[in-house]
User: Which sequence fits this backbone?
């Protein structure tokens, strides 16, 4: 082996990051059927990531896209899915859990990552003992027994202890900067009263108010401190009602339609005796907050959408399909297998149901209540999708981030359990990914309606697997406060007035990417167009007036009351037992179903207003697999010189030219005598820039369908007819359940 | 932005149409009630497919254009006066009430000609399309052109450029001509091309509103026909003839007009009457190409559309097309099908009303079936069926294909696109190892090869003849492509006649050795046998076979395991079953899987990638053959060349590729497609060329910026593979083509395409000059080509394609560029020095573009 004893430098160690263990002379396997491309280097396990530092520095990628927190071969510990150790001479293999013993010296380590990467190391030349130690260290640190053992705590603790040493300029208190620091846009985090109040004003929800009864999490530990309720409900009543809701999760307002209809999410009422009364009171209050006093339409998500276990099962199958099977020789059944995962079917179900609720709000002018047992899983997804379809603000970057804050982080989506950061949860479910996938479907169908690109969505998905950002670490806002206060006390950190520690925020993208790389988040089709009302992601508020109401009002209430939606489908005045609601309500009433069809038909027959409502196409050919997200690490799936990025490149260049012209036009108009202002001309919002006007230069060589991700360094087959990956791994198939392998050591 | 404008234009136009023909419609609606009700319960039928709407609107706008062009209106009327012998009805609402009450089709004023009888179609109509060009300037006939203009594509253009620029209309007319196919379909192609991609048509009707019919489709159609006919009968159909000869047709028309308009026709409004009558006349008749003539017109024919239900209209059969138009829908409904796509015409029984009703099922080669129903009362009504059969299968009936009658003139002569000498010169041939041989100039060496061949320099003609004797059908190994640097070559041939006794041919062995030696970079020759190993063995028993490694020591034989033409035909048949007319959404992907269509596409692409890789990375020459070397061989060599040579990825280059690897090297187009032949079960038919185009499309999907042409280009090629409008895909080999004088007696498809290149240009195209493109030949990167295979389904419309946005950006840029230049000029005149160096003249404009990405 070509072992050159160069000084190997570790990536700049982050605050609080410590090297736990390391081993030299490790071979990272690249191809399954040959070792000629393998890399030699040092495998390092820290309390944040595993790192592979090559002996020969890797040639830099021609594009300089990289994550500032992670090297090319690094895997954050929270991104590790499964660790398999193999001794090929003894023909033994073992899936390593935490605190387990390993009775053999591993010759090989295979790490399956949550982002669908497979990393394989060989220890043929390494010291057997140190190889074993590294494997055990990785197993131990990637499966912490306690939340406070996650790296984010270590990091934040260090920052609080040494406030002067801000590594990489990370300010732990930093709120959510937008993508470009220049715009100065901050993502509202909805932690404060004022953020909610602004949202009320933005959406014109005049009959709604911010409620502070949960300040200090006095009522519910899984609700935010501030949330929005109908103005007609008094705090006192709310407190009283709260006991009847699961988790004391009172109804939460999400959003208001310009026509006055509200989107509300609500947990089930567990108190059977009180159920009817409370339900009625709540619904009456919502009705009273509607300018038309329209009825409330309830959708029981548990009954019409797949549950989290089903979604997890679909995800597991998808993972198997995308990583293990796609390039087998016998791939003729690939489409059937894809269908059998049911992933796309569930995507369609969410999009479809959300579109139907959009119809209720948009066309029927009724407020919609999303009902779910705890109201913090499916409702996060449905509420977000509805808003993305209805409100163009949420299709901007800042808007989208605020939506995730509002409907996921603050509403108590259990990121810790659902992402399974501690690897012990049986409640894992990729709802957040499914949401991003649904948004990707819309982005794919209406590319010019979104300010962000699919790279942005992919990177957002990855960020949930980096245990540094407080955004995706906790099950609810209260958990952050509670855990970090405990942690602070144990570490002797003075918190002062702060409620818990401040963790880095994922929306501060400068922590992960340079400003140039962040340009890849911008969708050239959106930016390139002069988008009225959404310039530079500026807030777009609905123009509302009393006049508007009256014009939309005409003729509406009779239509509703005349049984277009069957009486029992609405929150009934007399009989309000939720259990009696039919799950397939939308199809039960002939007349209503017809008018919904009519609505969709009319909508699709009209030109799309990209800054208005958008509705998804749902046919079998139009719901697609998100290839960038699922295939980017599979080298065999990479189309070199190709992929939609080549079209993206072309549009970017063109958008840049348009920008350039706009700027020079402005320059001429403002002051034609001063040809200066070159600084302004240098600013581009595009990652790919034009070399002057009418740029005819070709597509850059480095573009591929996985751009900007580089699957180099991940396990692959060398040739089309090479050994199938699954055969090669001979039994150590991916994501074996721990039980089946437990006895094999 | 742009598209929004366009839409507003469209909507306005549509509305105005409705106002003029509303009465007519309401009456028309009644005759359809029964069938509509029946359809309604099926869920599908009431879906007013936006395609149809869009198309209809197109038609509608044709009429609407009248007011915009009122200058021509008068001229046109005077023409009518002189040409028409019939008085025309008054306002259309009256028409509706009166004429329709009896359930008859709208009393139509007859063919607007009425005058010179049979000569007419070749008269004004014949010139129509050219006159569109001369719109406004050409006097009387121009009015005609405007009114009966060819349809949706044109409408879009007009909507886009309300000024009605003659040039655009011409282009649109040309596009609508050959491309137009039924119920708005190939309009979609045109639109997909982007003329108005963001238009109303570009959206799906609703999210999930359609049910698929439960029972078998055949059963469903039978019921439908039965119900349709019963509704006709119950509507007390008058004794009006349904089908009659063109000449015969005129008499009842006159009578009809008298009947229908007694008491309504007012002398006070002759102009109005004329105009309306004129509209109606044109509303029901087919647009004609130069050289095209009407053979039958039949009215009250029911077209049973699987997507929008039964429509009653007038059927016109010409020597080129079958055209159904119904004005009872608003906008009018049109099915326009070139007869060339018809594979089979069959009568289908209608059980319940066996007395005199009749159904026809027309199976098409382009993934759809059409069903017609009509009342069969008199003897002569058989003519519909018989005429259709005769015209659809001219070859079987001793008639010439329409391509030989087509008289269109294009600015460009497509027959000049491919010159073998020029193409070989482009490749750097001849060189010291390869010569251009004239040995086959009289097609004696091989009657299915072109006259010009490239063979190794050192090979003697005598030896070549011996090689030819050893190779099936005399198809000796000849050069298709040579790598400009490594000199590695792709050569193609047929299988060697090894036979069961392992026959050898010294000259053949030496010949292959010479091919290998011509490439100094490698001491190996790879022979790709496209077939399955087992099939090649079977062939050996039948006298064919493959090169044994003992006889060809330096050759490596690789079987690509691609199935034969019969398997491909069966696969496409299955594909049609799952896409037409309805789609099972829940089992969509597994259904696609079950056809194996994409799997076969994958195998072809994978094979071509291996060939290209051997040439490019291995610098090794390859020989490609299957059995005869005209199906799979052509697919593989053409695809490999497309991957290796960026020239073939331009429009011109692709035309050359098709001319060279397919047409000149004797892919048996006539046989594989079955041009004009009624033997639909012919085992020689197979969608080999379609498969190739599908592979090309897959590549354009994976490399959206690498091809100069767009999706419309590929769809247009496929449409004219069947249409028999152009001579390009006629006959089986060069020798035959020469004998039939195809290049002098027919028009080339490339004439049509190259005279409107902007329609077929991919706006994303950037120069990939020195790139070899390796598509990922894996099922997870292959997609079903929805825009081709499922284009008849109005629900499967493409979304707002990304190129639409690109187009807008291009338009914005042009506009801005102009402004900046103006300001610069202004600044310059004020003698303020401007340091800016930009501002070359705008070379881009908002051209209609077509790819969807």
Assistant:
């Amino acid at each position: 082996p070509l072992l050159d004893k160069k000084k190997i430098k570790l990536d700049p160690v982050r605050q609080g990051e410590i090297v736990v263990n390391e081993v030299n002379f490790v071979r990272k396997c690249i191809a399954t059927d040959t070792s000629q491309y393998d890399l030699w280097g040092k495998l390092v396990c820290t309390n944040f990531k595993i790192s592979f530092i090559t002996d020969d520095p890797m040639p830099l990628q021609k594009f300089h896209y990289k994550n500032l927190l992670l090297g090319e071969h690094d895997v954050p510990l929270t991104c590790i899915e499964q660790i398999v150790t193999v001794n090929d001479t003894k023909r033994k293999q073992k899936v390593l859990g935490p605190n387990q013993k390993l009775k053999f010296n591993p010759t090989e380590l295979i790490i399956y990552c949550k982002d669908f990467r497979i990393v394989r190391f060989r220890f043929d030349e390494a010291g057997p003992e140190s190889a074993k130690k590294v494997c055990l260290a990785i197993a131990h640190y990637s499966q912490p027994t306690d939340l406070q053992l996650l790296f984010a705590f270590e990091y934040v603790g260090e920052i609080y202890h040494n406030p002067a040493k801000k590594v990489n300029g990370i300010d732990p208190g930093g709120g959510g900067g937008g993508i470009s620091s220049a715009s100065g846009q901050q993502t509202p985090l909805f932690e404060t009263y004022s953020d909610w109040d602004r949202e009320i004003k933005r959406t014109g929800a005049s009959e709604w108010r911010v409620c502070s009864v949960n300040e200090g999490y006095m009522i519910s530990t899984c609700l935010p401190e501030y949330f929005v309720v109908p103005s007609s409900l008094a705090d006192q009543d709310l407190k009283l009602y709260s006991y009847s809701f699961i988790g004391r999760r009172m109804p939460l307002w999400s959003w208001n339609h310009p026509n006055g209809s509200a989107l509300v999410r609500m947990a089930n009422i567990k108190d059977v005796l009180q159920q009817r009364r409370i339900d009625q009171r709540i619904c009456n209050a919502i009705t009273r907050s509607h300018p038309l006093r329209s009825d409330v339409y309830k959708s029981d998500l548990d009954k019409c959408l797949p549950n989290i276990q089903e979604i997890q099962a679909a995800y597991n199958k998808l993972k198997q399909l995308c990583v293990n099977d796609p390039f087998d020789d016998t791939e003729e059944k690939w489409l059937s297998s894809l269908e059998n995962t049911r992933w796309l079917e569930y995507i369609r179900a969410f999009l479809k149901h959300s579109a139907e609720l959009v119809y209720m709000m948009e066309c029927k002018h009724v407020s919609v209540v999303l009902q779910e047992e705890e109201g913090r899983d499916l409702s996060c997804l449905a509420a977000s999708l509805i808003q993305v379809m209805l409100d163009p603000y949420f299709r901007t970057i800042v808007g989208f981030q605020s939506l995730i804050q509002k409907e996921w982080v603050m509403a108590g989506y259990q990121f810790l359990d659902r992402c399974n950061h501690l690897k012990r949860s049986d409640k894992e479910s990729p709802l957040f990914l499914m949401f991003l996938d649904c948004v990707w479907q819309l982005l794919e169908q209406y590319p010019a309606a979104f300010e962000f690109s699919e790279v942005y969505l992919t990177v957002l998905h990855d960020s949930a697997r980096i245990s540094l950002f407080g955004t995706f670490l906790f099950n609810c806002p209260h958990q952050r406060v509670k855990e970090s206060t405990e942690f602070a006390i144990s570490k002797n950190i003075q918190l002062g007035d702060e409620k818990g520690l401040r963790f880095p925020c994922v929306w501060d993208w400068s922590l992960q990417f340079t400003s140039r790389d962040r340009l890849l988040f911008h969708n050239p089709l959106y930016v390139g167009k002069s988008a009225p009302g959404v310039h530079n992601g500026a807030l777009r508020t609905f123009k509302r007036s009393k006049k508007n109401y009256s014009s939309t009002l005409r003729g509406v209430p009779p239509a509703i009351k005349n049984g277009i939606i069957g009486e029992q489908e609405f929150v009934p005045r007399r009989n309000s037992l939720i259990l009696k609601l039919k799950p397939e309500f939308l199809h039960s009433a002939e007349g209503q179903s017809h008018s919904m069809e009519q609505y969709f038909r009319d909508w699709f027959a009209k030109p799309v207003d990209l800054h208005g409502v958008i509705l998804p196409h749902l046919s079998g050919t139009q719901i697609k697999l998100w290839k960038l997200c699922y295939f980017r690490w599979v080298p065999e799936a990479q189309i070199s010189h190709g992929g939609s990025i080549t079209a993206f490149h072309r549009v970017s260049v063109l958008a840049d030219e348009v920008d350039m012209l706009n700027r020079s036009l402005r320059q001429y108009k403002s002051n034609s005598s001063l040809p200066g202002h070159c600084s302004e001309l240098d600013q581009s919002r595009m990652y790919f820039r034009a070399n002057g006007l009418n740029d005819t230069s070709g597509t850059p060589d480095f573009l591929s369908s996985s751009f900007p991700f580089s699957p180099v360094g991940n396990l692959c087959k060398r040739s089309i007819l090479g050994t199938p990956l699954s055969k090669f791994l001979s039994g150590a198939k991916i994501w074996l359940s721990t039980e089946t392998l437990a006895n094999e050591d | 932005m742009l598209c929004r404008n366009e839409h507003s234009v469209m909507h306005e136009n549509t509305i105005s149409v409705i106002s003029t023909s509303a009465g007519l419609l309401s009456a028309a609606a009644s005759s359809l009630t029964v069938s509509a009700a029946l359809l309604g319960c099926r869920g599908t039928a009431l879906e007013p497919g936006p395609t149809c709407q869009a198309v209809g609107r197109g038609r509608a706008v044709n009429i609407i254009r009248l007011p915009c062009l009122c200058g021509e209106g008068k001229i046109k009327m005077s023409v009518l006066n002189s040409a028409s012998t019939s008085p025309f009805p008054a306002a259309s609402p009256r028409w509706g009430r009166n004429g329709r009450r009896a359930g008859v089709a709208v009393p139509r004023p007859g063919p607007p000609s009425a005058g010179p009888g049979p000569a007419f179609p070749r008269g004004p109509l014949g010139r129509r399309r050219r006159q569109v060009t001369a719109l406004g300037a050409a006097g009387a006939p121009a009015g005609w052109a405007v009114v009966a203009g060819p349809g949706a594509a044109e409408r879009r253009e007009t909507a886009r450029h309300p000024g009605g620029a003659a040039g655009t209309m011409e282009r649109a007319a040309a596009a609508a001509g050959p491309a137009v196919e039924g119920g708005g379909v190939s309009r979609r192609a045109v639109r997909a091309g982007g003329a108005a991609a963001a238009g109303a048509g570009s959206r799906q009707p609703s999210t999930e509103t359609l049910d698929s019919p439960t029972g078998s489709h055949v059963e469903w159609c039978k019921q439908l026909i039965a119900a349709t006919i019963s509704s006709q009968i119950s509507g007390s159909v008058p004794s009006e003839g349904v089908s009659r000869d063109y000449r015969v047709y005129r008499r009842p028309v006159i009578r009809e007009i008298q009947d229908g308009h007694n008491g309504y026709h007012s002398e006070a409004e002759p102009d109005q009457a004329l105009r309306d009558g004129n509209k109606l006349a044109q509303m029901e008749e087919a647009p004609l190409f130069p050289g095209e003539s009407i053979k039958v017109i039949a009215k009250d024919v029911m077209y049973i559309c699987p997507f929008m239900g039964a429509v009653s209209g007038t059927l016109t059969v010409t020597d080129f097309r079958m055209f159904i138009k119904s004005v009872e829908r608003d906008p009018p409904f049109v099915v326009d099908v070139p007869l060339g796509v018809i594979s089979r015409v069959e009568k289908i029984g209608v059980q319940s009303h066996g007395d005199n009703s009749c159904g026809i099922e027309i199976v098409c080669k382009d993934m759809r079936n059409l069903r017609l129903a009509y009342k069969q009362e008199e003897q002569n009504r058989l003519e519909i069926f018989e005429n259709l059969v005769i015209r659809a299968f001219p070859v079987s009936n001793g008639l010439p294909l329409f391509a030989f009658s087509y008289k269109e003139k294009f600015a460009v002569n497509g027959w000049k696109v491919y010159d073998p000498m020029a193409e070989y010169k482009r490749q750097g041939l001849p060189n010291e190892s390869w010569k251009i041989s004239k040995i086959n100039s009289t097609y004696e060496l091989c009657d299915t090869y072109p006259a010009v061949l490239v063979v190794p320099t050192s090979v003697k003609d005598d030896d070549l003849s011996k090689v030819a004797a050893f190779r099936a059908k005399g198809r000796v190994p000849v050069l298709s492509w040579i790598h400009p640097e490594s000199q590695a070559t792709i050569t193609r041939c047929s299988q060697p006649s090894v036979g069961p006794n392992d026959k050898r041919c010294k000259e053949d062995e030496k010949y292959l050795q010479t091919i290998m030696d011509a490439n100094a970079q490698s001491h190996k020759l790879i022979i790709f046998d496209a077939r399955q190993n087992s099939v090649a063995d079977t062939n050996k028993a039948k006298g064919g076979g493959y090169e044994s490694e003992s006889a060809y020591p330096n050759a490596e034989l690789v079987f690509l395991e691609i199935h034969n033409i019969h398997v491909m035909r069966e696969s496409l048949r299955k594909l049609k079953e799952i896409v037409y007319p309805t789609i099972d959404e829940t089992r969509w992907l597994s259904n696609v899987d079950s056809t194996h269509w994409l799997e076969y596409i994958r195998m072809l692409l994978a094979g071509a990638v291996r060939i290209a890789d051997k040439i490019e990375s291995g610098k090794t020459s390859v020989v490609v053959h299957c059995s005869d070397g005209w199906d799979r061989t052509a697919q593989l060599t053409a695809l490999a060349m497309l991957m290796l040579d960026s020239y073939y990825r331009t429009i011109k280059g692709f035309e050359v590729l098709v001319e060279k690897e397919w047409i000149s090297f004797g892919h048996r187009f006539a046989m594989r497609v079955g041009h004009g032949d009624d033997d639909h079960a012919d085992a020689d038919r197979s969608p080999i060329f379609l498969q190739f185009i599908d592979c090309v499309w897959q590549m354009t999907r994976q490399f959206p910026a690498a091809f100069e042409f767009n999706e419309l280009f590929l769809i247009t090629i496929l449409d004219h593979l069947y249409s028999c409008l152009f001579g390009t895909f006629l006959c089986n080999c060069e020798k035959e083509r020469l004998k039939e004088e195809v290049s002098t007696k027919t028009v080339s498809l490339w004439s049509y395409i190259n005279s409107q290149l902007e329609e077929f240009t991919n706006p994303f195209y950037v120069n990939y000059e020195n790139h070899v493109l390796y598509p990922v030949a894996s099922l997870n990167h292959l997609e079903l080509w929805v825009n081709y295979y499922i284009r008849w389904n109005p629900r499967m419309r493409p979304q707002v394609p990304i190129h639409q946005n690109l187009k807008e950006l291009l338009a914005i840029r042009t506009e801005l560029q102009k402004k900046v230049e103006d300001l610069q000029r202004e600044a310059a005149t004020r003698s303020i020095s401007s340091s800016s160096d930009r501002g070359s003249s705008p070379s881009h404009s908002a051209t209609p573009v077509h790819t969807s990405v």
About this structure: The mean pLDDT of chain A is 80. The CA atoms of residues 214 and 708 of chain A lie 43 Å apart. The longest strand of chain A covers residues 19-28.
